[in-house]
């Protein structure tokens, strides 16, 4: 006989486990199904983000940043080092330790909140029945009054460069190198490509990034993106080639030869390792029985409304498997919203106030509208920007690259967007998120007292600059 639950969640990534915990906290009998196994065949919670995504990549980014700081910046502080080297094995062991601590933490949170966990692959069948295929091949049936699909995403593969897990790898494989490649190729100059390219460039790799788009980070505000492109190519030394379409790859003598086309015609480059990171796609394979009634759109995403309800009453979908940015925090917020709705509470999510972050150094972060979007929409706006080079705390940290940019409505003064390229941008952007969430004006930020000395003073100055009133830079002359 099938076990009965108020809520059955399929997938324990940042969307799924948060939804399950919240549902349990709201008094709902909740189950969660997770198929992930570690290399040593142990169950693991947290999905892609905790196991092979956000967390391990940030651990490596932090290690590589410390290495560069020790190699180049310590001497500015009067600190001398001799025989500096990177121990890749130790760096990887630290990464694994962080991942294990967090995934075990999620397991403990699920248990502590009374969520019943099932290990295996979940498939939604008709009438909100979930069939769990366990790792030993046996099956178990769960019946949920409500079902939340949180099955996540997987890397996109492209025919010209099929991954082999050794020389040609996806984003997961790029987190497992046992040594620093002498020459590294990266296909895709998006978030993942820039982050992974940065890790190995800092540790000594010659990095070539091949990007099909003619524009660098078209989703970001181009004023800030150009600032970042200049830094990555000139100061960090990444060779980022835009307008470059990869047409093939071949493994030769333990190296990868990549064929591509640019404005000058066909070319070839040889690399010790090649990372393919051209995006991710929703993962639904084997998760939806033909008779379950859930519909997909033309791109393979599960169709949902603004409250993440699917075409089947009582079945919801959240995170990477539905429309919107593929971001862990977006999935988590959707999980909280859906749990509240199932419990009979009113809940909604502001999709206009979701922050985006690229964890390079300096970091890029943004929320709200870009100048390019506002121009295309015909919105009359005003802009204020402030350079980190004029911030005292940034000078003390030897982190003066970048800027903060704020865009406000020319008529209402409401903040429409904030865009940052700076050390610590991932933390600073929260101020922009709060401003958008509370419909703040640029004047609200102008009248806010910011601690000194902090990097966040650049947010204050950028808000003042919106009205040509910045204090610590010479403002443009009024016409």
Automatic annotation (TrEMBL):
Outline the extent of the Pyridine nucleotide-disulphide oxidoreductase dimerisation domain.
354-463
Which residues bind NAD(+) per the record?
Answer: 188-195, 211, 279
Q: Entry cofactor note text?
A: Binds 1 FAD per subunit.
**Enzymatic reactions:** N(6)-[(R)-dihydrolipoyl]-L-lysyl-[protein] + NAD(+) = N(6)-[(R)-lipoyl]-L-lysyl-[protein] + NADH + H(+)
What is annotated as the active site? 452 (proton acceptor)
Which Gene Ontology terms of cellular component type are present?
A: cytoplasm
Q: What Enzyme Commission number does this protein have? A: 1.8.1.4
Could you say which residues bind FAD here?
58, 122, 151-153, 320, 326-329
- GO molecular function: any one? dihydrolipoyl dehydrogenase (NADH) activity
Q: Where in the cell is it found?
A: Cytoplasm
Keyword set, alphabetical order: Cytoplasm, Disulfide bond, FAD, Flavoprotein, NAD, Nucleotide-binding, Oxidoreductase, Redox-active center
**What S-S linkages are listed for this chain?**
49-54
Where is this chain primarily localised? cytoplasm
Record Gene3D superfamilies = 3.30.390.30, FAD/NAD(P)-binding domain
Q: Can you tell me which family this protein belongs to?
A: Belongs to the class-I pyridine nucleotide-disulfide oxidoreductase family.
Further remark, if any?
Answer: The active site is a redox-active disulfide bond.
Designated name of the protein = Dihydrolipoyl dehydrogenase
